[in-house]
Amino acid sequence: MAKQYVDMDTLKFLLNQVHNLSEVLEKERYSDHDLDSMDLFLNSVKDFSDQELFPYFKEMDEQPAHFKDGKVIVHPQVGVMMKKGGEMGLISGVFNFEDGGLQLPGMMHTAASFIQDAANNNLPGYTGLTMGAAELIVHFANEELKKTYASRMLTGEWAGTMCLTEPQAGSSLSDITTSATPTDDGHYHIKGQKIFISGGDHEYADNFVHLVLARIDGAPTGTKGISLFVVPKKRPAADGSLSPNDVITAGDFQKMGQRGYCTTHLMFGEGEDCRGWLVGKPHQGLRYMFLMMNGARIGVGRGAAAVATAAYHASLEYAQERPQGRRLNNAGRKDANAGQSLIIDHADVRRMLLLQKSIVEASLSLVLLASKYSDLLHTATTEEDKEKYKFLLELITPVVKTYPSDMGVVAISNGLQVLGGYGFCSEYILQQYYRDIRIFPIYEGTTGIQSQDLLGRKAMMENGKAIKLLAGEMMETMQAAMTFEELKPYAVKLGGKIQEVQKVLGFLSEFAKKGEYERFVSDASLFMEFFSTITVAWLWLDMATNAKQKLVAGDKTFSTEFYESKIHTMKFYYKYELVKTTGLAEALMDDEVLTIATDKKVFV
Ligand SMILES: Cc1cc2nc3c(=O)[nH]c(=O)nc-3n(C[C@H](O)[C@H](O)[C@H](O)COP(=O)(O)OP(=O)(O)OC[C@H]3O[C@@H](n4cnc5c(N)ncnc54)[C@H](O)[C@@H]3O)c2cc1C
């Protein structure tokens, strides 16, 4: 196992200096907290992760969750995560004080969860989903449901899940068939099955509170007829006792990664006795779910950023210790007796490490930025600010879900390559990170679906208003960067790329105007790669500008080498990654159509 899985200095640099947590802490809602208390909280999460999460990472992969004798068996550390995590406020953190929460900013929740995910990504999902399900209840359910369920979920006594997917309804939720039949007693009879339900059953929670999407009898077809229900595994009675609610676990999916995080198949109402309680109004289920999904999507991006970060540190440690070959500089080539170099001194290995560093640190910056937009949206006091942060958050959410996930796979693949043959061997941890990260581009909306959302909806909202707002944010960074000779060329490059985004969107939107929607979004995934690479170039310029300002001011919070390494990595990103957007723009604006289905046989 590697020694280090996260770099707390980079996390604190991004949180406090680049994204200015104190701006969020000034809001009335967070007035009970300050930078010192937040720092203490983060350090305690790191201690918890060092002791309770990281040591079990490999073991949980080797002893995967599985289904035996009608039960889902998971690693005992799941119990520690639920109980201790609950006590530490890792579930309740962002909730209001009156609901039993700590009223932490979302930025802090993201930072704390990032540490846990990097330590062992098998575990924080159990508490994270419980938090998401409780949020739905607190925001949209009636007082009685809130009273019955939420407080026990926030302490980790009861677990929560999100039940959307069915065998025939994955990306397309309009095809959900789970039914809800009203009764005279105020509840509904639920019948149907849900697959791939994360954290759906185990022995370390006294009850499971499933948030289930279902269709009330006679509801309109499509997404407009979907409602949301609380369906507990066990029904709580007024005296506190629990009785079975006809929710049966049919199995646990065996997976290539995240093997310690169970993924269940649940059957509701096989015995015609499964009761569900409506959350909010009928037919509004998808709307409620999607309000939460934005948070969940930031969570997936954060998880991917964290897994790729841990993998980067493991490959960096290896590269610093592994001798192999000799450098191709004059000393290495001419002196036959020269000893072996460490592989970290070979240019190609440094390229792979810098690629990883540039992806993982920018991914972390991206998820913290999204959380900041969310905090500023929820504490905004003027209509102008509300609108601004709503648009910015909506636009970057699909990018936040996708860039760390897709590029996390690339980063870890490079990390594994750094280890050469040992990267492929079970004894070394890189292969586990490589298997674990592969789910991130799939769940919570695949890359294809997120890309259609970005191009088809978000970039087009109110004639590109969100794009204009984001371009304004980028311009501010460019102006700050232009004050430093060293950063000027990069600011100029970013300016050119902002214009290229407008050009590509102008080209593609013509198809939308002509009603050729399929053509319009046919290369949405390419657009996602193009747009997110440019967005990340902005975040790197922002990091480099902050680092430069600190160097000039003689700030000693972090070392000179630390700040200089940020500027160096920014330059690497512009040279090796940003250039790729030129080719992507060319492909996006190419008239030739090769992927849209026609009568022509292609796959012969
Ligand atoms: C480990 C794991 C955990 C999960 N946890 C949960 C959970 O807790 N709760 C829950 O409800 N679900 C969960 N899921 C389900 C997950 O969200 C779905 O797998 C995902 O939404 C994709 O659905 P699908 O598997 O049916 O694939 P499909 O929808 O069949 O997609 C297959 C491929 O087709 C593409 N595609 C589909 N439709 C379109 C389209 N219209 N345009 C272009 N391309 C398209 C997709 O991008 C994908 O590449 C989990 C899945 C896994 C594997």
Provide the β-strand percentage band: 5-15%
User: In angstroms, what is the radius of gyration?
Assistant: 25 Å
Average of the residue pLDDT scores: 97
Helix content: 55-70%
Tell me the overall shape.
Answer: globular
Q: What characterizes the major β-sheet?
A: 5 strands, mixed, barrel
Largest sheet: spatial strand order? 4-5-12-7-6
- How many beta-strand runs? 12
Distance between the termini: 46 Å
Low-confidence stretches: none
Q: Pairing-aware structural class of the strands and helices?
A: alpha+beta
Discrete helix count = 20
Task: Say which molecules are bound, naming each kind only once.
Answer: flavin-adenine dinucleotide
Oligomeric state of the chains in view: single chain
Task: Explain what you see.
By secondary structure, the chain is an alpha+beta fold. The chain has a five-stranded mixed beta barrel. It has a two-stranded antiparallel sheet with strand order 1-2. The relative contact order is 0.09. Strand 1 (66-68) and strand 2 form a beta hairpin. It has a domain at 446-596. The chain has helices spanning 8-18, 21-25, 35-53, 57-62, 77-88, 106-119, 124-140, 143-154, 285-321, 330-334, 347-378, 383-418, 430-437, 447-458, 465-482, 488-513, 517-521, 524-553, 560-578, 580-588; strands at residues 66-68, 71-73, 158-163, 179-182, 188-198, 207-216, 226-232, 234-236, 242-244, 247-252, 263-268, 275-278. Flavin-adenine dinucleotide binds at residues 162-165, 170-172, 196-198, 255, 263, 439, 442-444, 446, 448-449.
